[in-house]
């Protein structure tokens, strides 16, 4: 579409010709610390410990989470960007980091109420929170990658 604008400079036409229709993925990394407990009230302590291990600890415990939000799109012919990462970062901070950081996932976080505070469920809920805002930015959300520990992470690509 950009290529057809008559006043487009040679430079922009060049950019457009080369980068139009090129899908690229852009990731913003953020970090938060949060407490949780993964357990089921109707199960015995033994069963909770057997299934959830240390994450079933009665008096809570914390993780240092790393969150990777990946959007996708074509580079804008003028900026070369898929999105302004300042806007994306601001959005992730206001909608997710400020809600989760230094909080108890089971108690303090409205969108985790009544849910298992596993990394899987948390990643899906983060997707649901972010999606409408990312669409509003004019971007497509590709994936949520969430590290609970250095060695354990989950990835969600939507339905
Ligand atoms: Ni845990």
Structure commentary:
With 159 residues, the chain is of the alpha+beta class. The protein has one domain (22-156): 2-Layer Sandwich (Tetrahydropterin Synthase, Chain A). 33% of the residues lie in helices and 25% in strands. It has four helices and five strands, in the order H-E-H-E-H-E-H-E-E. It has a five-stranded mixed beta sheet with strand order 3-1-2-4-5. It binds nickel (II) ion. Nickel (II) ion is lined by residues 36, 55, 61, 63.
Classified in CATH, the superfamily is 6-pyruvoyl tetrahydropterin synthase/QueD
What's the average pLDDT? 91
From the structure provided, what is the oligomeric state, counting identical versus distinct chains? single chain
Largest beta sheet: strand ordering? 3-1-2-4-5
Q: Total number of β-strand segments?
A: 5
* Fraction in beta strands: 25-35%
Kindly state the percentage of residues in helix. 25-40%
Approximate shape = elongated
Question: What order do the helices and strands come in, and which of them pair?
Answer:
Elements: H1 10-19, E1 24-36, H2 45-52, E2 61-73, H3 85-100, E3 103-104, H4 119-136, E4 140-147, E5 153-156
Parallel strand pairs: 1-3
Antiparallel strand pairs: 1-2, 2-4, 4-5
Helix pairs in contact: 3-4
The structure holds nickel (II) ion.
Please tag this protein with its features.
Tetrahydropterin Synthase, Chain A, 25% strand, elongated, binds nickel (II) ion, alpha+beta, single chain
